[in-house]
Amino acid sequence: MKPKEFTIPFSGLKLGRHHFEFQIDSSFFDAFDYGEFSDANVKVDVVLDKMSTVMEFDMQAKGTVNVTCDLTNEPYNQSVSGSLKLVVKFGDNFNDEDDEILVLPHGEHQVNIAQYVYEMIVLAVPSKRIHPGVKDGTLDSDVLEKLQELQPKAEKEEQINTDPRWDALRNLKKDNKSN
Asked: Which end of the chain is more exposed for a tag (fewer CB within 10 A), N or C?
């Protein structure tokens, strides 16, 4: 189900540029049955350039979505920004197979851009989500402590407990590199 507030009636608009602004929250993603975001606060600015035979949409999104960290499973607000250009042409049949060109049947008087806004925001989220506290070391989490425990020991500690036969082979390998 596409949210109706994203339906733009273009038949009554004059030729030229028209501005639209949308505020996206979690209910928008609920309409698409997308459960990756627990909350959202994204502002979408849309500029419609209506010409006699075609229309061009320039969409810009900026805001935050609440996601869970891939490492710690802690929720955090991920900033997102994205842009999308969409050309709307008129033809005999509806065709949305191309990501950047939408063909509407002649006589159509409105277009719903909800699917394009949805895809633009979802694709703006990084594929690997890491809590900012993990990067700067400020996040205090049981999961991080367990990961630190299970982290491999330093190389020097491993060399102390190695078999001397392997050490002799490593020395041969190092000698060959220097020649």
From this structure: C
